[in-house]
Request: fold
Amino acid sequence: MGSSSRSSAFAADAGGAERARRDLGLHGPLGFRPVKVVALNEAVPGPRRVAVGTFDGLHLGHRKVIAGSDTVLTFDPHPVSVVAPPAAPRLLTTLDRKAELLESEGVEELVVIPFDREFAAQEAPAFIDEVLVGRLGAERVAVGENFRFGHRAAGDTELLRADGRFEVNVEPLLEVDGEVVSSSHIRGLVLGGAVEYAGHLLGSPFAMSGEVVHGDKRGRELGFPTANLVPPEGYVVPGHGVYAARANGHAAAVNVGVRPQFVTGRGELIEAYLIDFDADIYGQELTIEFLKRLRGERRFPSVEALVEQMGADVEEARKIAG
Reply:
């Protein structure tokens, strides 16, 4: 099974992502400047243009909300994981990845609210008084049209507009191909393997990071040594299959799955073969950017047939990832 048919129209590379940004009027600086990450209680009071939201994935709709802000106020962990744990979604981005993505949006500071039961009980007017005005000194507040805040989500955009102490920008929901761009929609795309189209909606390739761990050395025996990551708990992982990708900037062919050709006793694993690369990277951090799904994971009639297909996968990945 291949990726979504819609994905063929988009290149989930830096050029394609930048074209999508320009089409939406997102003209933030392309230079990368590290974003300062601070907890709310460490933020120094002062005038700010603040965008507020969870911003999981930092997709194109989020970027429209953030445009023109120097500060992003977000929540960690995801609020749903605190107020309704069984309904908590698997996430698209870690906090570190979110900060990395914000670098290209002209944002200077990422302020993080450690979300817990006590904060969840804060009334909406108190959030405005104590957080937006008192701590952050907001002169401008930007949110999406469906933003809710405060105890039992009682606060909304009208309450923000009624305050009068700061300018309010409410960004309408963004639609692409007739569908609202949302984190939940993109999670479904990634889980289904449609990483190319997901990358288009995100504005950059879907990526995940982890420490390279030892595997069964099966890839090395077959002539394709891999760097292996254990899927992080609580985060979205692409559907089982083989992908063209970049791993720490190197072209790579990546398998996500359980290796049906062999009985290993291991669970789900992410195995990246870095093309034209030969170095020991065990224990190092590896970031994989998924560009396109090449095929599903399956069992072959022989190991020789598997090796032949792996060679073809590598060549296709080389063409796509460059």
